[in-house]
Design goal:
329 residues; Immunoglobulin-like; 5-stranded antiparallel β-sheet; globular
Length: 329
C-alpha cells in the first residue's frame, strides 16, 4: 500500500525596482493538521531575515506574520513541510434528498452561517439560475448527487484559461467569460451550492501528481487538473457539507471528488480569507512576483526516501514576472 507522505516546498520571490522598507507580511502556507492529514514538520524562512510569529485565525488556519524594517530590494519567502495524507473514508451515509434539505434550512443556517452566507467572491447571482436548473435535472435528487453534478457541470462548461480572470475576479467575471482557473471554478461551485442551501467552503492547498510504482509519471492515471495546472502545484477546490455524513471535497477543475492527491493548507468563505501571501511595504517602488512550488512523495512504496522530483517541480528560474493568480502583496 502506498504511503501518502509528501514533501512540499513553496518559494515566493518579490523583486522591487527600487529599495523599500517597513515590509509587513501575513502568510497562510502551513498545511492543516486534522483528521484528514498530519503536518509532520514545517519550516519558514525569509531573506532578509525575520522572526515570524504564528497564530490560528478564525477558521483555524495557521497564520504567520513577519516584518522587515531595513531597506531591501528583494524579498524571498521559503516554506517547507512534510505532510501525511490519510486515506479518504468510504461514503457510507444514507442519501438525503434535496426536498429534505429544504426542510432543514433553518437549522443549517444556525450551524453553518459562515458557509451559507454570500461572500465577496461568491455573491448571490441571479445569472446562476439556469446552471442550477441544469444541475438539478442532471442529479439523482440527493444532496450529494447535486454537489457532484454541480462540480462536473463547472468542469464541462467552463474552460481552464490562465489570464482570463485576475486574483480579484468574482463569480460574475467567470460567468461572463465562461473561463477561468481553479480559484474561479471553486468560487462558482461554492455559489451554486450555497444558493441551493448546501454549506460550502473554499479550500486552498496543493495537488500531488500521480506516479506509478517505478517513479515515472503515469499518464493514464493523471487527472484533468494535473494536465491544466502544469508545473504549479498550488490549487483550490471546495468542501461541501452533506447531511448525515459531513464535509466532502469536490474539485470543479477536474469535475470529481477529491482524494489523497489534495493537501489542504487553509479553508475559508472564499479566497479573500486565505491568500497565501498578503502584505504592505513603504516606498514608491513597483514590484514583480514569481512563485515556485515543488510537491513530491517523501517516501517510496518500500518506505525509503524518494529523491526523484515529480512533474510539479519548479521550472528553471525565469525572469521575475507578476503572477497575480497565485499570490498578492
Amino acid at each position: 500500500m502506498a504511503l501518502n507522505r509528501y514533501k512540499l516546498a513553496h518559494v515566493t520571490l518579490f523583486a522591487y525596482d527600487a529599495t523599500v522598507s517597513e515590509s509587513y507580511n501575513e502568510l497562510r502556507l502551513r498545511p492543516r493538521h486534522d483528521e484528514a492529514q498530519s503536518c509532520l514538520s514545517f519550516r519558514l524562512t525569509t531573506t532578509p531575515f525575520s522572526r515570524p510569529t504564528a497564530y490560528l485565525d478564525y477558521f483555524n488556519n495557521w497564520v504567520h506574520q513577519f516584518h522587515i524594517l531595513p531597506e531591501h530590494s528583494e524579498l524571498r519567502v521559503e516554506s517547507e513541510a512534510i505532510v501525511l495524507v490519510h486515506p479518504t473514508p468510504p461514503y457510507l451515509s444514507r442519501e438525503v434528498s434535496l426536498s429534505e434539505l429544504d426542510q432543514r434550512q433553518e437549522a443549517l443556517q444556525d450551524e453553518f452561517f459562515d458557509w451559507m452566507t454570500p461572500s465577496q467572491y461568491c455573491p448571490t447571482v441571479p445569472a446562476l439560475a439556469p446552471l442550477m436548473k441544469e444541475v438539478e435535472a442532471r442529479c439523482d435528487g440527493s444532496v450529494r448527487g447535486f454537489a457532484a453534478a454541480a462540480a462536473k457541470l463547472v468542469h464541462e462548461q467552463f474552460k481552464y484559461q490562465k489570464g482570463a480572470t485576475h486574483v480579484h475576479s468574482s463569480v460574475e467575471d467567470c460567468l461572463a467569460t465562461r473561463s477561468g482557473v481553479c480559484q474561479d471554478f471553486a468560487h462558482l461551485l461554492i455559489a451554486l451550492l450555497r444558493q441551493r442551501g448546501i454549506p460550502a467552503r473554499y479550500v486552498s492547498g496543493y495537488l500531488v501528481p500521480r506516479h506509478s510504482k517505478n517513479g515515472s509519471a503515469d499518464e493514464a492515471a493523471r487527472s484533468t487538473m494535473e494536465n491544466v495546472i502544469g508545473g504549479q502545484a498550488s490549487h483550490a477546490w471546495v468542501q461541501a457539507n452533506i447531511p448525515e455524513f459531513g464535509w466532502i471535497g469536490l474539485d470543479p477543475t477536474a469535475g470529481q471528488f477529491v482524494d489523497e492527491q489534495h493537501i489542504v493548507v487553509a479553508r475559508g468563505r472564499d479566497y479573500g480569507d486565505v491568500p497565501p501571501v498578503r502584505g504592505v511595504y513603504k516606498g514608491h517602488a513597483g514590484q514583480s512576483l514569481s512563485v515556485d512550488v515543488l510537491v513530491r512523495p517523501a517516501l517510496d512504496h518500500e518506505g525509503s526516501e524518494l529523491l526523484m522530483e515529480t512533474a510539479a517541480a519548479p521550472l528553471p528560474p525565469p525572469e521575475v514576472s507578476e503572477q497575480q493568480q497565485q499570490q498578492q502583496q
